[in-house]
């Protein structure tokens, strides 16, 4: 498929507008997405976020962009109230499990990537860990103190929100009123309740601790992403992504501290919406989650991806076991269409040029609709609709026959490019169809089985039939002789 002729657009959370995407450097895209805090297993809420951004990155690369995708691992500093109070989530869980916090982080980092690999999520180009970038964080904090945007109290460092008038622009919150019902109470060492921690003095027993110019401590959660994104993408980069639940305070604080330190920071903000259960956010803290491992124990990984992509990344997805089961039929329709066209191509030869041209024109129309949907803020539900249209075209064409092998193979390649390379829900192996190039060898094996039968070597003939069936080849013995076909099951 050629580069899309449409203008790629994204809905920027900062400006609240859908606008054309123009990268900072032509043909190159730098994207940073907030990764998981690795203190427990990933759930379907994480699947929505990371499958969604996986497809955005896949589409950018499909369009010909060179992409550097950075997604961090948070292994320190994420406190239980997501702000400046409470206990570090890793330390709390590690204590309950009687292991070192970084041992726990390593365990769940591996399990996170295991789950992502299973879902077909392509790994980021760089996966930095917060604990491995303490010097970069200290450097930014030092600059903020020197510029008058941060202050030191009792070994902790706080960002002064009053020094950054634009605070609240991303989330649209009235910072004077605070977050309704949840405003952080003024601590004696804070100048303002809105101020947030850049560095926290390590109290006794706090295992994760480092030396700093202000004493022994550990970084605040927000400063970590500012440091890692600028370290690998520069002081200005194209896209910052993450979950809607991180828009405030996490992303709001990232903008404030980065720009106050003199960094232009992210040029476009993308936020995926949440997975809900009966209208409530799926989360580890609420205990209403289904882990990715649990979902995959009962469902095809491609079906889980299809469930995620059936909802726009900016829209919520309400989860139930039946909602996940419901997409399996759609996945089967896509696979069956691809399988049928592959089988037809194996036995096709030549066809009238007019028929081929009409067929490929319909395929191109579905392909164009797919590209238009993806260029419109990566609208995967509409893109899937176009993919199902392509499947319908393939089903109709293969039922009628009369198409050339070349036309059918070209259509299959296009469907695999859209459904596989871009969306990650289709692959040739999953169709259970033998490649068209294997047809002559299947012919030879079927002839060998016939000779075995004629020689009354029935045990060997039956074995060969069973082995071919396992590879998607159905043999039919009829009055007119033996024939075979690729399985549609």
Any overview of this molecule?
It is a single chain. It contains 14 helices and 15 strands. The protein folds into three domains: 10-318, Rossmann fold (3-Layer(aba) Sandwich), CATH 3.40.50; 330-428, Four Helix Bundle (Hemerythrin (Met), subunit A), CATH 1.20.120; 437-486, no CATH class. It starts with 8 loop residues before the first strand and ends with a strand. The longest helix is centred in the last third of the chain and has 27 residues, at 321-347. The protein has helices spanning 44-62, 89-97, 101-118, 134-146, 221-233, 247-260, 292-298, 301-309, 321-347, 353-375, 380-400, 405-422, 439-454, 458-470, and strands at residues 9-12, 17-20, 28-33, 66-71, 150-153, 156-159, 196-201, 217-219, 236-243, 265-272, 275-277, 280-281, 317-318, 473-478, 481-486. The chain is elongated. Helix 1 (44-62) links the parallel strand 3 (28-33) and strand 4 (66-71). Strands 4-3-9-10 form a four-stranded parallel sheet, with helices on both faces. The protein has a four-stranded antiparallel sheet with strand order 5-6-7-8. The chain is an alpha/beta fold and 489 residues long. Helix 9 (321-347) runs antiparallel to helix 12 (405-422) and helix 10 (353-375) runs antiparallel to helix 11.
Please give a quick description of this structure.
With 489 residues, the chain is of the alpha/beta class. It has 14 helices and 15 strands.
